[in-house]
Amino acid sequence: MLDRLADIRGRVADATRAAGRDTEPTLIVVTKFHPVTLVQALAAAGVTDMGESRHPEARDKVAAAEGLGLRWHFIGQLQTNKAKQVRRYVDAVHSVDRPELLNALSSTERQLDVFLQVNLTDDPGRGGVVGDAALEALTTAALEAEGIALRGVMAVAPLDEDPTAAFARVIAASERMRALAPHAGGLSIGMSHDYVEAIEAGATHLRIGTAITGNRPV
User: Fold this and answer.
1) What percent of the chain has pLDDT over 90?
2) Which of 163, 170, 212, 213 is an S-S bond match for 194, by CB 3.0 to 4.6 Å?
């Protein structure tokens, strides 16, 4: 795993330079289905940001890794009735796509970073906001919600499409968001198979799993 981590770090640095960028995007290592021992090894290697997409597993890992100084990102589709529980232990949610979920995440307890997910497919089951009007309405709601810090947009590029073309649509969505929220310029895009194209498109956050962690345990 450490060899794969070093390889990805080098490739990210190379892609950042090739894109003419001065700052590398935040590397979020997605550890779902892997044991907490992997999280501990990643932390020892200097990884600071971890991603999870399933509430019970995420909750237990956060508790087991307490004291390691990690930032936890929830990146999967989130049920509204689980939102308040997830809010207690994560630093950011990348998959907000509806007003009900946003309302459930709102709180005066502490600030939560939020990315609004846009759907780049024709499948509503994939999650994400569809259409300019819906994105603008949810952006306005996020700006008004208590305890919510709107950071930008998140998307998953379809596997059957050129990622560069898909990310161009994300950039267009980001521009619409920033017309209402100029500070929310984050782009949570890029996974194991398309992170180079994501860096070229201006990604601020990469969500990389198997390219670093290896295949999921059986």
Assistant:
1) 94
2) 163
